[in-house]
Amino acid sequence: MKIDIKRSFTFYEQMATRRSIREFTNEPVDESVLLNAIKTAATAPSGANKQPWHFALVQNPEIKKKIRTAAEAVESDFYQRRAPRQWLEDLKPFATDANKAYLTEASSLVIVFTRTHTKDEQGRMQKTYYPLESTGIAVGLLIASLHQSGLATLTHTPKPMGFLNELLGFDKTYKPYMIIVAGHAKLPTQLPEIKKKETRQIMSLH
Predict the structure, then answer these.
(1) What SS3 state is found at 55?
(2) Considering Cα of 87, then 82, then 103, then 145, what sign does the dihedral take?
(3) pTM, whole model, 2 decimals?
(4) What phi and psi values does residue 111 have, to the nearest 5 degrees?
(5) CA–CA dist 41, 143 (Å, integer)
């Protein structure tokens, strides 16, 4: 493939506009866009090509409601009991709390699981390698694809997330990794003031 410097700069400029959105409309999203984003995520490299990821696309309002109820219970415990004081201080600029309305307001949730074991073509269980690292790369591609399509996104990681296995019917070989909220942003969107670190602060040359 020929090196395209202009495309590289254009991609950066496009991705630099991505922000985490916490207010969504219920406007439907073309399912083909979501499926294409998942297909893009699945192009990620993985340890020994075991592809240790699973993407559960949730659009059913009742299932989203159950996920929100369970997530808010976990988050309430976090904010009221488990969160260190410094963590709560760091969250203040974002005005977050245990209320996670976006889980039911947005049209779609992509529940990402990472897998410690998967079945081969003969149906035999086999161990995966570097499942967390591999799934993390796939999630990055998923978010980039959704943003490129014009959708707003938010990453949500309530801990613990075992309730997702129960609600979606997955066994323990499926480890909840992240909830990706995807949909149309509610306008006007109020965003906190943030600044990304300069390149010199996050890299070094050797």
Answers:
(1) strand
(2) positive
(3) 0.94
(4) -90, 115
(5) 8
pLDDT band at 180 (very low <50, low <70, confident <90, very high): very high
Q: Which tops the pLDDT comparison, 28 or 122?
A: 28
Dihedral angle computed from the Cα positions of residues 96, 101, 105 and 106, in that order, rounded to the nearest 10 degrees? 40
Phi-psi region of 96 (alpha: psi -120 to 50; beta: other; left: phi over 0): beta
Question: For residues 114 and 175, what is the distance between their CA atoms, to the nearest angstrom?
Answer: 5
Which two tokens mark 47?
Answer: 């340890």
| The residue to which tokens 């207010």 are assigned | 23
- Helix ranges restricted to H, 78-203: 85-91, 102-105, 131-148, 163-168, 199-202
Predicted local confidence at residue 123, as pLDDT: 85
Question: For residue 176, what are the β-bridge partners?
Answer: 113
Tokens coding 171: 């066994």
Q: What confidence tier does 1 reach under pLDDT thresholds 50, 70, 90?
A: confident
Residue 136, classed as helix, strand or coil, is helix
**E strand residue ranges, the chain:** 53-58, 108-115, 117-119, 125-127, 152-156, 174-183
